[in-house]
Inverse folding.
């Protein structure tokens, strides 16, 4: 296909809304993005009537119908043939593991589920497990050609169990020349490690948890791997995944390594060196899980504004529409409304759609508005779209994700989560700078936030994806005030029934952000070049191969 994958020269820009020494219709479109309209969408989507917008629920049906009506009113076409919806098959698995038993070197140790390890399976089966599976310490479990690193090289671990460390070697060494230094790469994410285990055909994989490199304590793992877990269902009922996927506490790992005659810290240190080779531990592992399996279906929402002359090329605005539905009562409230997370982003889709619909001339490229499901269950809706794209990935120019907008008012800055990954950053920098705002990077890159929202499922299949974060330097109150408000919301309302609209919200900052997002999409939709990943990105090789650019 050999697309032109380079950054196009940026055109002159006039951002003022008071006059339009250029494209008056563009300025008129920007004016349609208003606080009043954005708030109306948020209040509707987060109302009790929508029952918290859980996947596969009455709340989902109401959300799908609301979006369909609104996008049809704006003149948009169904984005999936004659339908506004893409079916997403889901499965909910409740795993009940037994004890983990490690045998070898003349002894046997048993470990308790929850307190000392967790385990589950993605396989859609009643029972899964391993029996006397040989343990091999595989360092970080990374096969990363762009970093000239492959812990799996020369190894055939089919029928065996791999043990790997969380994060990647760059975090351990803090060497900026090794992976991305302290900034987590895709290879440091636990999701990647289990995906690679499936590709390598191992029986099982266990990740050793440590709080600093994981960026969260063991309790987060313990809660996240207990109870009902949602997942996608492949045609093979996920039988290509490892029979067991799990975690060990670092204390468990130390005990097992000692049983094998090794020092955990010594092997961990060796694992961050380029000449590291995997270490058979001379032990075997046995554990089984009994599953309760429930199948269901949910939907992604797709609405399309066809392009005027390059309609077979697509720019994507995306946001997850789902939240947690009706659940455990907190202070007498059982509806998890999800006003900030993510009725704000879903309502923003409508605001941007209205702006594009108001243009006198459609952009050259098509604009896809994508509302994805089951983000709260593990980015499942976007993962399904990435694996089953309605539009060819090589014709998908770029994506911009909106998840939890700014409700605190106007900011002097704006952030980019994953700053430096792609040429899309340059668009945001240009438009934000012209608006008098400073662009900042992720305040905590070691936490790997870029890999924890829906745009990532576009990135991992090669499509450049931008994830703008909110600013923190409030025009009137400054950074400390904003951070205190944000920390308070996260501590008291995140994933709680109290995530509701309150009258102290100030959406002027969100509107300012959305006007920048509109300009980004409008610019790209009228260009002929394809923005690419920057050198060193773990996604660039995928995109280059896809576009015939190697």
């Amino acid at each position: 296909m050999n697309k032109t994958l380079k950054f196009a020269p940026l055109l002159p820009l006039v951002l003022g809304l008071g006059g339009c020494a250029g494209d008056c219709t563009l300025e008129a479109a920007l004016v349609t993005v208003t606080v009043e309209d954005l708030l109306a969408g948020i209040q509707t989507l987060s109302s009790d009537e929508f029952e918290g917008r859980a996947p596969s629920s009455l709340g989902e049906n109401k959300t799908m119908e609301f979006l369909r009506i609104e996008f049809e009113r704006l003149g948009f076409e169904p984005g999936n043939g004659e339908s506004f919806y893409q079916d997403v098959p889901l499965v909910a698995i409740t795993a009940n593991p037994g004890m983990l038993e490690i045998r070898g070197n003349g002894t046997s140790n048993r470990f308790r589920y929850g307190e000392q390890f967790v385990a589950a399976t993605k396989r859609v089966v009643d029972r899964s497990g391993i029996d006397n599976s040989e343990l091999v310490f595989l360092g970080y479990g990374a096969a990363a050609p762009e970093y000239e690193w492959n812990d799996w090289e020369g190894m055939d671990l089919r029928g065996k169990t791999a043990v790997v460390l969380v994060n990647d070697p760059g975090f351990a060494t803090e060497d900026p020349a090794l992976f991305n230094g302290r900034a987590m790469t895709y290879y440091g994410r636990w999701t990647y490690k289990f995906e690679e285990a499936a590709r390598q055909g191992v029986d099982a994989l266990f990740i050793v948890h440590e709080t600093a490199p994981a960026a969260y304590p063991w309790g987060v793992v313990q809660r996240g791997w207990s109870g009902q877990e949602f997942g996608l269902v492949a045609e093979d009922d996920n039988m290509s995944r490892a029979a067991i996927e799990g975690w060990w506490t670092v204390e468990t790992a130390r005990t097992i390594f000692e049983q094998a005659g090794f020092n955990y810290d010594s092997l961990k240190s060796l694992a961050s060196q380029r000449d590291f080779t995997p270490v058979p531990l001379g032990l075997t592992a046995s554990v089984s899980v009994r599953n309760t399996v429930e199948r269901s279906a949910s939907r992604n929402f797709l609405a399309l504004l066809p392009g005027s002359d390059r309609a077979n090329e697509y720019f994507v605005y995306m946001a997850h529409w789902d939240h947690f539905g009706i659940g455990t009562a907190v202070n007498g409230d059982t509806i998890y409304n999800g006003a900030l997370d993510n009725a704000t982003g879903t309502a923003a889709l409508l605001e941007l759609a209205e702006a594009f619909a108001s243009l006198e001339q459609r952009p050259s490229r098509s604009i896809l508005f994508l509302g994805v499901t089951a983000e709260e269950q593990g980015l499942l809706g976007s993962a399904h779209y990435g694996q089953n794209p309605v539009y060819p990935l090589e014709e998908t120019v770029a994506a911009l994700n909106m998840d939890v907008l700014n409700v605190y008012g106007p900011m002097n800055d704006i952030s980019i989560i994953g700053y430096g990954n792609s040429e899309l950053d340059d668009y945001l920098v240009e438009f934000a700078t012209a608006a008098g705002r400073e662009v900042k990077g992720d305040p905590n890159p070691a936490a790997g936030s870029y890999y924890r929202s829906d745009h990532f499922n576009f990135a991992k299949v090669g499509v450049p994806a931008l994830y703008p974060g909110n600013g923190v330097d409030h025009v009137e109150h400054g950074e400390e005030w904003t951070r205190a408000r944000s920390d308070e919301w996260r501590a008291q309302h995140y994933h709680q029934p109290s995530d509701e609209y309150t009258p102290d919200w100030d959406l002027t900052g969100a509107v300012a952000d959305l006007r920048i997002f509109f300009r980004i999409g409008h610019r790209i939709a009228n260009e002929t070049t394809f923005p690419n990943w920057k050198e060193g990105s773990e996604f660039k090789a995928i995109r280059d191969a896809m576009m015939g650019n190697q």
The mean pLDDT is 93. The first helix runs from residue 24 to 31. The chain is about 30% helix and 25% strand. The CA atoms of residues 94 and 227 lie 5 Å apart.
